[in-house]
Amino acid sequence: MSGILELGIMLFHVMVVIIILFLVPIPFTWMERKVAGHIQQRLGPMRVGWHGVLQPLADGIKLLTKEDIIPDRADRLLFKIAPIISLVPPFAVFVAVPFADNLLLSDMNIGLLYILAVAGLGIYGVIFGGWASNSKYSLLGSIRSCAQLISYEIPMGFAVIGVMMLSQSMNLSDIVNAQADTWNIVYQPLGFFVFFIAGLAEAQRVPFDLAEAEGDLGAGYHTEYSGMRFSYFMISEYLVMLTISVLCVILFFGGWHGFLLPLPPLLWFTLKVGFFVYLFMWIRFTFPRYRYDQLMSIGWKVLFPLSLANILVTGFFIV
Questions:
Q1: Nearest to 112 by CA among 169, 197, 47, 29
Q2: Whose CB among 37, 144, 170, 235 lies 3.0–4.6 Å from 112's, allowing a Cys bridge?
Q3: Coil, strand or helix at 104
Q4: Would you state the pLDDT for residue 216?
């Protein structure tokens, strides 16, 4: 009986996390439009609700009622399942994320490795969606995205090795608890720099949004998508941005550990994640995108050597 009760509690917690993650894009889309408006010296959404706060709901209704169009010569099966394949990994990642002390779904010993491995599976949805659309623009967008994510996953993976060396663990709770006195950003500024820049590229955000370059690809790999299938790609993009923000906080900024103000741990964690989400949005509306050759050069010629140098420096520091 106790086993059934524990299973029921676990399923309840899983459903709560899934519902929260599905609702996350609602405030994020409104926040991003407002940030864009203020940076560009305009108001942003103002018509639907107070200061446009209901605009995301209006957009959701529009996407729900929009006709779901499948191109005539598309691979119908892959075209339909590609958005789902792209959406599932960002949800699966949060199984191992500790939001506060003992507030997590699964306390994995290899939580960090699990997150890096599962997060990389989302690229299959992008590849399938671009190829199945039978569109040159979509195919080019998916090929660009594949090359970009592979190129930046390597320095991102190497950037976290320094954190693992300091904490002697891949368990995310252990990594956070190891920062109770001093955050890893003090010891790993170079590792954080590489991780954050690679995270921008992994989330395909400006200045690394070459897979969705509207000027030359229409919209990239999801050019032919409409309605809810299009929204699945958008939800996955926001969840990847949230995932990178969460990992920055856990790996380099002390997780739920605060300073000065005696706030609850979960509130500290939320405030830090909110700061990084805002940083993603601020960067989007401040910097222009790179050319594709510049994007690849930064990944292989700058971030990759820096990530290796960070490992060597961390090793000397520990010894």
A1: 169
A2: 170
A3: coil
A4: 67
pLDDT for 227-248, tens place per residue? 889 999 989 999 999 999 999 9
Q: Tokens 């439009």: give the residue.
A: 33
Q: Tell me, yes or no, if the pTM score tops 0.70.
A: yes
Q: Which residues pair with 103 in a beta bridge?
A: 100
Q: How far apart are CA 16 and CA 233, in angstroms?
A: 22
Tell me how long the chain is.
Answer: 319
The number of CA neighbours under 13 Å toward the Cβ of 25 is: 19
Residue with tokens 């395909």: 204
**What span, in angstroms and rounded, lies between the C-alpha atoms of 287 and 315?**
35
Lookup: tokens for 248 = 């920055």
Distance of alpha carbon 140 from the chain centroid: 22
Q: Which amino acid is it at 246?
A: V
Neighbouring CB atoms inside 10 A of 42's CB total: 9
Instruction: Evaluate whether 194 touches 233 at the Cβ level (below 8 Å).
Output: no
**CA 189 to chain centroid:** 20
Nearest to 106 by CA among 20, 10, 19: 10
**Angle between helix 111-119 and 76-93 (nearest 10):** 160
Residue 248 has φ and ψ, to the nearest 5°, of: -60, -40
Domain locations along the chain: 1-65, 70-318
**Which tokens hold the place of 221?**
């790999």
Q: What is the pLDDT of residue 217?
A: 66
Amino acid at position 121, single letter? L
Task: Give the alpha-carbon dihedral of 66, 72, 78, 84, to 10 degrees.
Answer: 0
Tokens at 219, concatenated: 């919209």
d(CA 89, CA 84): 9
Torsion angle of the four alpha carbons 274, 279, 281, 283, in this order, in degrees rounded to the nearest 10: 180
Query: How high is the mean pLDDT in each 10-residue block of the chain (319 residues)?
Result: 77 88 91 93 91 92 89 90 93 92 87 93 90 89 89 94 94 94 94 96 87 70 88 92 96 91 91 96 91 92 96 91
Residue 218, pLDDT score: 67
